[in-house]
């Protein structure tokens, strides 16, 4: 074990020690650990990427925990660079305002608020807002543009400070962050202490149903400690003095779950979405370790196809580039053995990543101008959840004879 990493021995949701290994992925560096040219000679530390199943509550999780400071203090992902996510968050804020009718002008807190994109829509709707995010540069930028953001990690102590200075929150949100936290129990204790009596906690996470059904294995990386399903969450919230009132499917990240919880005995009735989700999970066998082991075999079959295709194209002298440098590309490229021998460079629209090199593999990340300059024959869409907008935006590449490869959920050449 390194100073930056430890392995826990209990289930993050129920505390059980009955944990079975189900998927073993190739160890990788942290998925967002892009490096400048000056640091290419420095060996990047790789951490285990093994997935475990809790035999008691059926929660699926990583037990290897990388120090969150290593992962998040100099984060390079910002929601505002993706028009798809900006629209998603606008609809999300509208949904919460219409469905739960929070007290006008009341406090909305976003845990893992990133650049404040979601909070900006609550602010426009007349709510007071507060972001919480550990990424120093991103938190400072969000504050400067009018979304007050506390730089730090959320927990019971910070929740107590906020309740004392700002009062209780009508809405607390946590998007693509409720899977990132080792001490989930402490975070939910903080939420419970900070939520107004009629308030709601709304979170979005990648949904295990979609991950297993569509082989979305590349959403497994060190930031994502949990692969949530509804059945274990119902039990977890009940044990924490809260109740899950909705479990809604949304299409972001290839398939996500929007969970909504309130204080136990709160004003909102439990919707039928919760029972429907639990029944679907049981039908798919997500409460059995063997289902996850079958998923592991599906991953290997997909890898054989993609790797074979890329090696054939290289043998024909074709030039291959990647499009998109999301965190999940690190898992996909390491597990499938796709390095600089197969992919020459990667295009990404985020200025924060351009000019850097990918974690461990050290493939250069360039702006989209490189497509016209370097003329690749194929673009592997590593940000596959945005495949359609990427293809539409790069029509000139296709008209010039270029082809796209979509690696997930199945290997397709477009």
From TrEMBL:
The keyword Disulfide bond does not apply. It comes from Paramagnetospirillum marisnigri. Residues 11-72 form the Methyltransferase putative zinc binding domain. Transmembrane segments: none annotated. GO terms for biological process: methylation. SUPFAM superfamilies: S-adenosyl-L-methionine-dependent methyltransferases. It comes from the Bacteria. GO terms for molecular function: methyltransferase activity. Residues 252-409 form the C-methyltransferase domain. It holds the Pfam family Methyltransf_14. Keywords: Methyltransferase, Transferase. This is SAM-dependent methyltransferase.
